[in-house]
């Protein structure tokens, strides 16, 4: 599953002898977006192998992962159940409207209950209540997701020095790092506060996947803009002008923050002359409709 590489041109980096490409994982599938498809691939195979007829997973009301699981269930003939954090709001937002139209059954739980989403006792209870579904964790991140994300880097047909990726739970970054086996430099851009916690999480995900420990990566923690799904006017301005200049659609939760950070690092001289950089577009564009509806803004 090779996705296109799009080279981006700008005086800002070309004057510094830097070349930049975007790996368009957002084009991987029309509705199972970007890294969520990579993370689901081996989970779907495992669910079939174990003869489950239902997928159950967790997410917030605007979750890219919820939308992706709903679409995957429809395409690969699983029933799907979404355990949604918080109360039901009607009319449904665009993400949940899409999920239900793809056949997903939604169950809302309180924020307190949601905190138990990884507890074995709670999962056993859900397994009984929903008749033995295949349970996928929040954000889709587990060892099979890490395996799927190693494939983001297996067929990049150019030589490069750095690869950049936005990070939430860290599953995608763990897969990229594990797939590169110590080669290249990997930069992760957390979309949430709390980079130190994420570092440990990623180390554990890699270790569980292939027993490896690598030191060719680090987290750039300065571009979360206040936390998950928090946005600031300068981020929106950046996204609008970047999209126009490069004909590249972005969203403000992950990819917009990563590109903002990447451009800022280039400007500040972080990358040596001659650097060749690949930035991964992890998708997530389905979330823009919800942002526009909620905030009354256009991107
Ligand atoms: C979910 C998501 C991420 C975060 O991926 P993790 O594996 O959880 O780190 C990044 N970008 C987009 C667009 C996403 O939807």
From TrEMBL:
Its cofactor is pyridoxal 5'-phosphate. The active site is at 63 (nucleophile). Residues 3-283 form the Tryptophan synthase beta chain-like PALP domain. Keywords: Pyridoxal phosphate. GO terms for molecular function: D-cysteine desulfhydrase activity. The modification N6-(pyridoxal phosphate)lysine is found at residue 36. Gene3D superfamilies: 3.40.50.1100. It holds the Pfam family PALP. Coiled coil: none annotated. InterPro entries: ACCD_DCysDesulf, TrpB-like_PALP, TrpB-like_PALP_sf. It comes from the Bacteria. PANTHER family: 1-AMINOCYCLOPROPANE-1-CARBOXYLATE DEAMINASE-RELATED. This is 1-aminocyclopropane-1-carboxylate deaminase/D-cysteine desulfhydrase, PLP-dependent ACC family.
